[in-house]
Write a structure and sequence with these properties.
alpha+beta; 8-stranded mixed beta sheet; 31% helix; binds flavin-adenine dinucleotide
Length: 395
């Protein structure tokens, strides 16, 4: 029987490998998918257990790791990406030729998120920008295997647990596969996100037509790259700073992640993919020319294949090697999983009967707003004001 306990990441590897189709993924009360087995059909072949990424050391990379600071040379690509446009650069570098399949997470109907592929890296814009909910990998592992066996080049991007699931599913290494994992806090379910969309539609009396995370803006000179933008059918458009968006407030407070996220085995320095990408939070403390909110990626190469692809980026983009001690303190998921929010279970109990925003506001203090305002009055800014005042007094 595949593991369908709180450890399950919902990667679907067990369902996809089953030769008799006796495993189905079923959503629980919280909206997360778990495997369910039909015992009458099961032949006890054990494949579902073999491909489960839980406690499966074989999925980890053993190679030397190198950390990089990266900004895509194409400002347009940085604009349409979450951070520095690393994903686009890596996919293009690995593919080179047109015959290449790139897999990633895209918005689907009704704002669910699902994995799919495009046949050319030029078409990857549907995968760009983070979607802060769990993407359903559907049957993409089987499609990846088919492509690889036919000799196609394949790039697969996803959360670390999705890459672990893919590697456990494939059960062998392929030279023509590049895996890219994103650094990950944790994933909410589609059900949670739907409650949020319904709340917006209720508040603004119109259906949501378009939605985008990671909008860049600034307030009092402080940059923000985690805002959201919503477009409604009646033409109304809204944008929120990260500290004002009720969904991001709950997300950053870890109020509604999948249970496995709080015990994630992949939230550590040792990685599962060839290349890991994330936001380079804190880079401005080391490199004064950069600001993470303007789009700077952290890239970690974890394998020989990863290093080879990274090498190809040097003459095309802004990239330099950096000591890991500049990255790890600002990206806690490189050390350990996000700690459990003690109100998580209560949140899901209340979601059955109460409105999304009321519950989140009950549990999340506005720490984001305080931090933001604090950044607006940094010691440097205060010093500048004092200097100006002193000079005025002198004259
Ligand atoms: C749920 C979630 C949590 C994250 N947590 C962190 C974090 O703690 N620290 C950090 O530094 N970065 C985190 N990120 C990653 C970060 O936001 C950027 O996605 C990453 O830096 C890539 O930026 P880019 O500019 O290279 O890529 P872009 O060009 O913006 O491409 C986005 C990439 O992310 C993938 N993707 C988008 N949404 C999902 C999803 N729901 N599931 C799986 N894959 C997805 C796409 O397939 C694509 O490969 C998180 C992203 C998500 C989706």
């Amino acid at each position: 029987m595949p593991d369908n306990t709180e450890n399950c990441y919902g990667c679907r590897a067990c369902e996809q490998i089953c030769p008799v189709g006796c495993i189905k993924m079923v959503a629980d009360d919280e909206g997360f998918l778990y495997p369910q087995k039909d015992n009458a059909l099961c032949t006890e072949c054990g494949l579902c257990i073999k491909v489960c990424p839980i406690d499966n050391d074989s999925v980890f990379q053993e190679g030397k790791q190198t950390y990089y600071c990266f900004v895509n040379a194409d400002a347009g690509v940085v604009d349409s990406s979450s951070s520095g446009g690393a994903f686009s650069a890596l996919a293009n570098e690995f593919c080179k030729s047109n015959k290449c399949k790139v897999f990633g997470a895209r918005w689907g109907n009704g704002f669910n998120v699902r994995h799919c592929s495009v046949d050319n890296p030029l078409n990857i814009e549907i995968f760009q920008k983070s979607k802060y909910l769990q993407s359903d990998v559907l049957h993409t592992y089987s499609e990846v295997k088919e492509g690889l066996e036919q000799g196609e080049k394949v790039v697969f991007s996803g959360t670390p647990c999705q890459i672990a699931g893919l590697k456990a599913f494939l059960q062998k290494e392929y030279d023509n596969l590049l895996t890219i994992d994103i650094l990950c806090h944790g994933v909410p379910s589609y059900k949670v996100f739907k409650h949020y969309i319904e709340y917006l539609e209720d508040m603004y009396n119109s259906s949501v037509k378009e939605f985008e995370f990671r909008k860049r803006s600034s307030l009092f000179g402080v940059k923000d790259s985690c805002g959201t933008e919503v477009k409604f059918s009646n033409g109304k458009e809204l944008s929120f700073y990260s500290f004002n968006d009720i969904y991001m407030k709950g997300f950053f407070s870890a109020l509604y992640y999948r249970k496995s996220c709080y015990r994630c085995e992949f939230s550590q320095e040792k990685r599962v993919s060839d290349v890991t990408i994330g936001d380079f939070w804190g880079i401005e403390k080391t490199d004064k020319r950069l600001n993470a909110h303007e789009g700077v990626s952290l890239i970690i190469s974890n394998s020989v294949k990863g290093s080879a692809v990274l090498k190809g980026l040097h003459d095309k983009h802004k990239i330099y090697q950096i000591d890991k001690s500049f990255a790890i303190p600002y990206n806690k998921n490189l050390i350990s999983p996000t700690p459990l929010n003690k109100n998580r279970d209560e949140f899901f109990r209340r979601l059955k009967v109460e409105r999304f925003d009321i519950i989140v506001n009950d549990y999340v203090r506005n720490v984001g707003k305080i931090k933001f305002l604090a950044a607006a009055v940094t010691p440097d800014k205060i010093k500048n004001i004092m200097r100006n005042v002193r000079e005025r007094i002198k004259t």
